[in-house]
Every structure is written in structure tokens, then in C-alpha cells.
Write a structure and sequence with these properties.
The protein is of the alpha+beta class. It is built from six helices and eight strands, in the order αββααβαβββββαα. Strands 7-6-5-4-8 form a five-stranded antiparallel β-sheet. A three-stranded mixed β-sheet has the order 1-2-3.
């Protein structure tokens, strides 16, 4: 019997929360007679593969205990948000502080769309600061979250300046961590 995303969410939501994660998304895809369940989780400070594997085992135990599921084969993937998922909640912005983001906005009353690219800075209740480096000139722009049409973290191969990260609101230790790893660029 195929299972629906809302059913999976209901079954695993408490466990995910008890493990310190937010349940971000559940998808179920039917392929060759097998359900493929993808459960996307996120938390402050991120996660590592060992923690996700342990969570996956606990979720599997819950699903295997359901009589309607126990006889049907399924594939389970428990994963983090990744960079391709849109920032839709304030926690997404907060958890990506200092990361490069591309934001599509509807600008004011005329409805014209524009794009802002920069690093996620300080987050208020209804606004976020975006720190942009325009050929060495650093600027901070305040963006109203209500005007965001879509925002996605970008893969970033450049090393931000200390000043950019300071303006994002990162402390000295986090700046040092992001700027070097065993003396190598991140």
C-alpha cells in the first residue's frame, strides 16, 4: 500500500523534533513498485552524516512498525536541506548567516522584479540585511522579507573578506573558521 507524504510526516514529526531537527519536507515517489521516501530535515548548526544516519535508522524503525508498510519494500533517504532549496522561513535565513544568496524581489507598488545578490546578514522580524561586495566596495542593503519572491543560497567559490563577514554579524571565531581550514581556503 503506497504511503502519502502527510502520513509519513505525521509518523516521524515528533521523533525528528525530539532529535533537535525541523522536518522540512517529505516526498514519496513510486518507482518500479517501490516507494522512495525522502525526508528533509534541518537544525541550527547543521548536521553530519553520522547524525543523519542515526536519525534514518530511528525513522526506519518507526516506519517498519506500521503494519501497512512492513510488508512493502521502500527506500528511505534522510537528508539535509542542501543549497538548492528556497529560503522560506526565518530560520532558513538565520541558519545561513554569512552565506551567499540570490534573491528575486517584487519591488514595491509597481510590481517590477529585481534581483539582489550578496551575503545574508542580520535578520529582523520582517527584514534581512544583505551584504554585497561590488568590486571591493561593500554595501549593505535591507530587504523586506515580504517582497521576496524566491531566495536560494548560492554555491560560493570565493572567499569573503573579514569586513563582509563582520557586517553579516558573525563573531571572530566563526569568521576565522570560515576563512581557513588548516591554512587552506574554504
Amino acid at each position: 500500500m503506497p504511503i502519502s507524504p502527510p502520513q509519513v510526516s505525521e509518523l516521524v514529526e515528533k521523533l525528528v523534533a525530539d532529535q533537535g531537527f525541523d522536518l522540512e519536507d517529505v516526498t514519496v515517489t513510486r518507482r518500479d513498485g517501490t516507494d522512495e521516501l525522502t525526508i528533509v530535515v534541518d537544525r541550527d548548526g547543521g548536521s553530519d552524516l553520522d547524525v543523519l544516519a542515526a536519525l534514518s535508522n530511528k525513522i526506519s524503525e518507526i516506519l517498519d512498525a506500521i503494519p501497512d508498510l512492513s510488508d512493502d519494500p521502500y527506500v528511505l533517504e534522510v537528508t539535509s536541506r542542501g543549497v538548492d532549496r528556497p529560503l522560506t522561513h526565518p530560520r532558513h535565513w538565520r541558519r545561513n548567516l554569512g552565506r551567499r544568496v540570490e534573491i528575486r524581489l517584487t519591488d514595491g507598488d509597481d510590481g517590477a522584479k529585481r534581483t539582489v545578490t550578496g551575503r545574508i546578514g542580520r535578520l529582523g522580524e520582517s527584514q534581512v540585511e544583505i551584504v554585497a561586495n561590488h568590486k571591493g566596495r561593500i554595501a549593505v542593503e535591507t530587504v523586506d522579507l515580504a517582497e521576496v519572491v524566491k531566495a536560494v543560497v548560492q554555491v560560493d567559490f570565493s572567499q569573503p573578506s573579514v569586513r563582509e563577514l563582520e557586517l553579516c554579524g558573525l563573531d571572530e571565531d566563526e569568521i576565522a573558521r570560515r576563512r581557513s581550514r588548516d591554512g587552506k581556503r574554504l
